[in-house]
Amino acid sequence: MKKLIRRIKRLFQRIFKTFASNSQQTSPLIISRPLHTSISIPSVSPRWESGLVLVCSQCANEQLGSTASEDLENWLKSRLKFEGLWGEFRVVSTSCLGVCPKSGITVVFVSNGSGGNSPCLIVNPHSDRELLYSYIKQNKK
After folding, report:
1. Which three-class secondary structure string do you get for 29-87?
2. Are the C-beta atoms of 103 and 126 separated by less than 8 Å?
3. What is the C-alpha end-to-end distance of the chain, expressed in Å?
4. Distance between CA atoms of 43 and 29, rounded to whole angstroms?
5. Per-chain mean pLDDT for the chain
6. DSSP state of 88
7. Quick one: which of 126, 52, 131 has its CA closest to 92?
8. What burial class does residue 120 get, using C-beta atoms within 10 Å of its C-beta: 0-12 exposed, 13-18 middle, 19+ buried?
9. Distance in angstroms (rounded) separating the CA atoms of residues 115 and 58
10. What is the pLDDT of residues 78-92, one digit of tens each?
């Protein structure tokens, strides 16, 4: 029984060593960014270069019907793809952003050039589509 326990212990040690050595090697997309502690968290270079558009899915459920934010999101995606900007911008549905407007959908536009100041917009999913798209396009890198 003692031999079996020692074998298992050695096996676990080899597994942990292998895991530790593999975790030291990072892929070309992963860059370790040191924090204020001795722990480092891998970060990834995103595919979107000019910005990320977050569309709240909860606003539409409350006010305008369950498909309004989904329709806006799909319209933006289609428009960006049509204009060849889909790789530079990304449109993502998100849960509640905590703004909860009485009418409209909350949209947050995060861009590399925003310096941490990401505008939070209240958008009518039908009448403000073109205006929102123009705003996104103006912030092209």
Report:
1. CEEEEECCCCCEEEEECCCCCCEEEEEEHHHHHHCCCCCHHHHHHHHHHHHHHHCCCCC
2. no
3. 65
4. 8
5. 78
6. T
7. 52
8. middle
9. 27
10. 999 999 888 889 999
